[in-house]
Specification:
Blueprint (H helix, E strand, L loop, with lengths): L2 H26 L5 H27 L5 H26 L10 H21 L3
C-alpha cells in the first residue's frame, strides 16, 4: 500500500464524516431522540478523528516501518467501520446487541495509534 492510497482512504472517510454530520444535523434531528442524536454525533466525531489519523499516517509514510504503518492503517480503518458503523446503525434503530461491536472498533482505534507509535519508533530499516 502506498501513501497515496492512505490519503484517498482518509480523505474519503473525512468527507463521509462531514456528510454524516450534516445529514444528522439537518436530516435526522427531527426524527431521532436526543440520545440517538448523541450516538450519531459520537460516530461522526470518531470517524473524523480517525480519518485525520489516516492522513497523518500518510504524511509520515516515508518515515514509518512499512509493516507497522500498514497495520496502523488497517486497524484505524476497521475501527471506523466497526465503531462508527455500529453507532450509526444503533442511532437509526438497529438492535441493541449491535452495540457489542463498538468496543471492538474502539480497541482497534487504540491498536491503530499504538502501531503508529511502533512504526515511527522502528522507522525505515
Amino acid at each position: 500500500m502506498a501513501a497515496g492510497a492512505v490519503i484517498v482512504l482518509g480523505s474519503v472517510l473525512a468527507a463521509l464524516a462531514v456528510g454524516s454530520g450534516a445529514f444528522g444535523a439537518h436530516g435526522l434531528e427531527a426524527r431521532l431522540s436526543e440520545r440517538a442524536m448523541a450516538i450519531w454525533q459520537t460516530a461522526v466525531q470518531y470517524q473524523f478523528v480517525h480519518a485525520l489519523g489516516l492522513l497523518l499516517v500518510a504524511a509520515l509514510w516515508e518515515r514509518l516501518q512499512p509493516g507497522w504503518g500498514l497495520a496502523s492503517v488497517i486497524a484505524m480503518a476497521l475501527g471506523v467501520l466497526l465503531f462508527s458503523g455500529s453507532l450509526y446503525a444503533l442511532a437509526l434503530g438497529a438492535p441493541r446487541v449491535l452495540g457489542a461491536i463498538a468496543p471492538i472498533g474502539g480497541t482497534l482505534f487504540i491498536v491503530g495509534w499504538a502501531t503508529l507509535a511502533v512504526a515511527a519508533a522502528v522507522g525505515r530499516a
